[in-house]
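Running log. JK asked me to keep both predictions on one page so they can be read side by side. First protein, sequence followed by its tokens:
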Amino acid sequence: MKIEDRHLSIASWVAQQGTISVEQVIEQFGVSPATARRDLDALAHQMVVIRTRGGARAAPISGDLPLRYRAALMSHEKLAIARAATAMVKPGQTVAFSGGTTTTQIAQELGVRASSDPEFAEKVTTVVTNAINIANDLIVRPELRVVLTGGAAIARSYELVGPLAKAALPLINVDVFFLGVNAINPARGFFTEFEAEAEISAAILEKSVQSYVVADHTKFASTAFALICKPTDVAGVITDSEADDESVAQLRAAGCPVVLA
């Protein structure tokens, strides 16, 4: 079992049972006592559990986090995309996220990386987002400064939209923007379901030095209502290795690089 999957399983156990002992980690996951203690220490550093003598107990947020982790981390495609995207972020940059399950996964991976990489403690890394759930995930990370736009909330995507969401954008610069989408049309561009979401995403894109569309391969076979931007408006697309070869070739031919994670 990969370490990330084991950490997720331990976190889920604690969320359901309230506590876990070192002996239970050893027995359930077949690891050494030293590895069990390191796993619990890592989860405690991520604020998912609170370490106790001989084990760990649930942190105030741990009943919530593993459920959302499960929805994203159990998708190998999205996890691969998240790791590829997070590797592009440098400590000290300003990183923006739109709403969506893939961007949420990237934000969570960034939070984990920031908590374990000493450079993030030395350089202020700012996260700008209009997604309430992403801000909620990262606000507990002392290595990251979180800026949440204003606006009216959309329940389906947890995104803030409208004039208030755009009001602060003229005053900021973004180094890297990770843009989640509902559909990819290699000829026309990138789409989302609602025009209000498309409007705020396009506004953030305008303030970004580099922007990447992040989407799993199913988005190539999907359609959606509102156009966000054209293929040439972004620095590239990060998707998984199952993406349709013809669609990938079309994007590349249109001048849009594609990273297969």
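And the second, directly underneath as requested:
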Amino acid sequence: MDKNQQKQVWKKLPRKMYSEAQEFLEDREDQCVSACARFLHMKGSRDHVWALRNGTGSIKALLLHSRRSLYPILNGNHDIALPKFLNNFLLKVPIHAVQGLKPDAEILEAAMESKGYHPAERIDYDLMALEDPPVSSCFRSGPVNLALRPPMPGDIEELFQLQAAYEQEEVLPKGAVFYPAASRANLERLLRNEQMLLACLDGRIVGKINTSAASFTRYQIGGVYVRPDYRGRGIAVRMAAVFLKGLINEGRGVTLFVKKQNAAARAVYRHTGFTVQGDYRICYY
């Protein structure tokens, strides 16, 4: 460790200083929507914000803890001092995941490995952003009789089939057990707190898309799923285009992260106007 690192000390921020953390996050919002959304919903002693300051006293990096996850926002600093408090914290609080820009996640991952904590799985994603409505051709994609609508109370059982399939295909870490009750609770939370659009064809719900987080000026989307037997017909493109147009018209930008190996999903997002902003990583423990 060099002399500069020796002078760097991570300190937990009291709530009266959260405005400093918010200013730091707002300047980097497009790179850390998930972290910003968690910051906006910090709850008492269960959640934590640590800051690392530079020589002038300004925040140089942040580390957030919320809902068993750690979010490093290190601002591209590769000479970050490892947080010395981390070992004691990990002994008291179980961590399920680390997520953030890949370079930041790698630094925290290395710090945790030095303390004996090794990830069960690492998943790399493209971080993508959209600022303008999708091009007009997207709205002509898919079957002519495709119907798009918001969810209704009577949809819950059919929607649960899609949510369960989506989580098992795209969300659960390798080797993780699927719990139907937890998936249903997650769906109910989405229906209460997020925006969602359904794609219907042949008298059934064949696809869905929803917001998964909202930060200061951006939405994050997720839960994008089309039944396997309806894929390849342009349904996802039109469903996403209609949904995204509504979000953009609210005056917000839109962000997502998509698995690098999911070529079909990446093609859909590129078609609707998303551009890659960087590499994103989630490490599961």
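Observation for JK regarding the second prediction: The radius of gyration is 20 Å.
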